[in-house]
Structure formats: C-alpha cells, structure tokens
Amino acid sequence: MRTDLVLTVAQSKRLIARGVARYQPVQDALANGTVAIAKGGTNAYVVEEILGRPIEKRHYVLGQVLPPGVSRADAGLSADLPDVVLVRGKQVEGVTATGAVADMKAGDVFIKGANALNCAAHVAGLLVGHPTGGTLGAVIGTLVARRIRLLIPVGIEKDIPTCIPEAARRLEAEGGSGPSLWAMHGDIFTEIEALRVLCGVEALPIAAGGVAGAEGAVWLACFGGPDQIEAVRALAERLKPEPPF
Q: What is the 3-state secondary structure (H, E, C) of the chain?
C-alpha cells in the first residue's frame, strides 16, 4: 500500500526530532549512557522531543542560514539557552555539549545538525566559519577515537546536487572569505529514517518545493502494510499544526 506525505520544513524538523527521540541508539543512551545535543535549528526540536516539553527554540541556535539582509537579531535567534546534556535520561546542569564529550564513551550519542546533505551517499556538509572548527572541531577526534555515535538530524530539503567532499576540496583550494565546508560522516537521520522508526514504512522522496508556505517542502511516497500506512496518516494529522520555525 501507499500513502503520500507533504511536509513543510518545520513539519520535517518535528518529524525528524520525534524519530530521533524514538531511535533505538538514542533510547539506549538515554537509559544507560549520555546524550549530548549541540545547538541548532533541527536540534532545538530534538531537545523538545527528548525532554518532553517546549523550549524557546530560537534561543537554541548557533549558526543559521538567513535571507540576505536579515541578521540573527532580526530573526530573534540566539544561543542563550544552556546546552542539553542527559546522563541516564536526566538533564545535567552546567555542562556543555562539547564539554560532555570528555566523559563519553562507545554507546553514547552526540547530536549535531548539518547545512547540506548528499542523501544517496549518506554524507552531510557543515559550513564552518569558526577558526578552530566550531562545535564539530572541538569534538570530532574524541568521537572517532572512542566510537561515540555522531547522529546527524538533517532534512531532505538540504539535499544538494554537488558532491560535498568535492565541494569541500574546491573551497579549500580556492580559499576566499566565505566559510569552509566540512564533509560529515556519521549516522544521517532524515525524514526517511524517522518514518521508518515511527511507522515502519519505506519513504521515497518524489518531489520538493512549493508555494503558499510549502517553499522547501518535501513530498514523500510511503510504502507499507495497512497498519503502517494508517500510522503515517495519523502522524500526518499530528504534524499539520506545526508552525514555521
């Protein structure tokens, strides 16, 4: 059976966040280890779903792509809220996501968003303007050395036709004043993975974009049995009221 699902950008963020909260490696880390959630637009939704309560999402954002001429202050964006780090499911006060990594181990989860995606290649891209690599630069060595899971929640709207590793090499070679591009290899988690976790369906992106609020939207064809399809339809109804970020 098949049902189709059209998601705005905000609805996709909510869907991905709900999937992350139910994802077994995250559930395991919440029960027995540590989950550290770096700041970011999609990650603000992840925080809400894991904590089970709303937060001021616009205050859990570091870097963000904005329209030309619009500043972070204009958009009401800041990083004022403290980082969310949970040890055995309980939030730890006074610990940053990057600082928590010093005590993390295999089986723990570090959650970091992305600016670009090669969905088919399972590679994400991160724009880096910080001189020492920002959040990812501060933790990547430890994540790799200790086999800490790098979970990357990212919407299909960020899928680009450019090969991210090749683009990263081109930017490195050419230099210039813009940000660098970091090819991220980790556990990519899109709407596809979220629908698999939440409803057990296979989701196939078949269109993107739109008007009247559907700019950046993704159209997904979902395949599964009757119960799975009904679960998608019920989930779609719950996602409908999600306002723009």
A: CEEEEEECHHHHHHHHHHHHHHCHHHHHHHHHCEEEECCCHHHHHHHHHHHCCCCCHHHCCCCCCCCCCCCHHHHCCCCCCCCEEEECCEECCCCCHHHHHHHCCCCCEEECCCCEEECCCCEEEEEECCCCCHHHHHHHHHHHHHCCEEEEECCHHHECCCCHHHHHHHHHHHCCCCCEEEEECCEEECHHHHHHHHHCCEEEEEEECCCCCCCCCEEEEEECCHHHHHHHHHHHHHHCCCCCC
Contact 202, 1 (CB under 8 A): no
The mean pLDDT value of the chain amounts to 95
At the topology level, CATH places domain 12-190 in: Rossmann fold (3.40.50)
pLDDT digits (tens, 9 = 90+) for 162-201: 999 999 999 999 877 889 999 999 999 999 999 999 999 9
Q: Which pair of structure tokens corresponds to residue 98?
A: 């990057």
